[in-house]
Amino acid sequence: MLNFQFLFIILFVLIPVQLHAFCSEPSAYLIYTPSKPSVPWCVNESNNTHTCSEWEIDSYYNALEIYRDDSQEFIEDLNRYVDEAVEYAQCRAGELD
Predict the structure, then answer these.
(1) CA 80, CA 73: separation in Å to the nearest integer?
(2) How many CA atoms lie within 13 A of 36 on its CB side?
(3) Are 81 and 89 in contact (CB under 8 A)?
(4) What is the pTM of this model?
């Protein structure tokens, strides 16, 4: 029994501090910046008028909705990455203590 305790103490002292705690680097998300849809050619933005068909207007509004959803997901991914980066930085700073 005494030999086991002695061996444990020797191994614990010889193992580097870095092995006691592992800092997980932030995940590299495949983040793309959503592209805002172009205003249809049939819209006159300066006069605030259009000559678009119902289908063209509906398609544009659908594209805007997809853009809003993609933008929200993009922001959530960025926030998750920032949170992980902060945790990683704190962990690495803790290794210096």
Answers:
(1) 10
(2) 2
(3) no
(4) 0.64
